[in-house]
Amino acid sequence: MTRLLIAAMLAALIGAPAQAQTATDAPADDAAAQAAPAADAAGEDDDDDDAPAAAASTVQHHDFGPSGIMARSNREDLAPMTLSSGKPVAEGEYSLQSGGFYRVKIVSDGTQELALSGGDFFRAVWINEVVINDIEIRPLGVHSIEFDDAGEAEISFIAIMPGRYTLSIPGSSGESQQAVFNIR
Asked: What is the pTM of this model?
């Protein structure tokens, strides 16, 4: 059970099917690979109906290098978010790829006590760390982040679950008072 859970978590991080990551599927793949040459030798035609099945059984592997998915070279810095009285939170919508490693800076100018809340967004990503004043925090979960004064926070995360998510200022209803993340 633990191996299956770990395989599913890894599959979510790299975007591969979970069943392709389990060790029990390896013999079946070998048997299918050996059966294909035997069918060709027997004179059976290779028709287009077999092509999708063969493509579905292949697993795409990413070469993230020796440091893996969280290597600095794999990280993408997103446009910063701004918390300021009367100003938009984000310049536009963020488009993310599931399994991608991202970093976003949140800057508050201190004009008003403001927060960004978005439990759905924070459950759709795996947070690596939150950095505030050079203090690195590695949380198990986050629901919101609030600024009482001027300051800056930086969040690094891996996008996991595809969907449309928002981080918004609690109590506000304007579209400019939220940051929209589209994970595909």
From this structure: 0.61
